[in-house]
Amino acid sequence: xxxxxxxxxxxxxxxxxxxxxxxxxxxxxxxxxxxxxxxxxxxxxxxxxxxxxxxxxxxxxxxxxxxxxxxxxxxxxxxxxxxxxxxxxxxxxxxxxxxxxxxxxxxxxxxxxxxxxxxxxxxxxxxxxxxxxxxxxxxxxxxxxxxxxxxxxxxxxxxxxxxxxxxxxxxxxxxxxxxxxxxxxxxxxxxxxxxxxxxxxxxxxxxxxxxxxxxxxxxxxxxxxxxxxxxxxxxxxxxxxxxxxxxxxxxxxxxxxxxxxxxxxxxxxxxxxxxxxxxxxxxxxxxxxxxxxxxxxxxxxxxxxxxxxxxxxxxxxxxxxxxxxxxxxxxxxxxxxxxxxxxxxxxxxxxxxxxxxxxxxxxxxxxxxxxxxxxxxxxxxxx
Length: 383
Known about the structure:
By secondary structure, the protein is mostly beta strands. The chain has a domain at 50-190 and 340-383. Helix content is 4%, strand content 50%. It contains 2 helices and 28 strands. It has a 7-stranded antiparallel sheet with strand order 4-3-2-1-28-27-26, with no helix packed on it.
């Protein structure tokens, strides 16, 4: 073999083939804002009658599109006139036999909250003297219920979770119960107030907002809004002592609140719904001062003589606001549109109570609503 050829082959053997150039690593730019797609308005609707007089629904939580629990004081509407504290949706029907709820839970729910496997409903005793709070827990992995009954005076009205095992429930006379961890017990504390707290919603376990009211024997009523950071309470609004850290008026008659926060910009959106409905904006943990009347964005409730009752905000571009007399409006980031649900009153003459809307990870919605006095349906909207 030619000596030069031999040396060339030997060099290839030791050096190997020349390395291929790797494509450059492109690091995407750091986001400077939170982007949200427009919320969906197109649904296929289904209505199921779930409760008859005398009934009161507390709330609904869905672990999936075909696994949901409805809690409350649920009348069967036919002999032998039984009352249930819950019903289960299995994807086809609402079943009243939900793993021994009647015996093991023993309470009427005013509200429900949960995450991917754990659910909590809050309310008051079924048995024993009235006016005592109670809580029921349900672990969807074990299908086991656990109940708690307390001696504090009053009922628990609303509950919120961060989705990571932290739950906080509020109720009459400023009562608060917290549970930090799925296996933890409930710890009692109190807002520095004697108001009855009806709604609670949070961004995290260190940023929670609570709305309450108080009626006097004279017929006067007052509203409060508080912020809780996990250890300290800060009053945002109080019409009884004219503490207006939030630029609201007594005549706004607050009915519901809901916060949203963009982690990238550390900016807060706080919806306050009532006779007038507003969106507040702020940065960091500042008290919101920038105020937009939602009527200026096209919400027609006030101009039509109607008040806001509930707000369900899934993103800044997916907000549902319910007004009196079955006025349902949706904000998709561009405009408000009235949503007419087939089977529900749409003549602006009927009154009915709506409970908190729940949306699953697929975008399906569950909405418990009254259709006539103490007769309730669950509306399901499939995208």
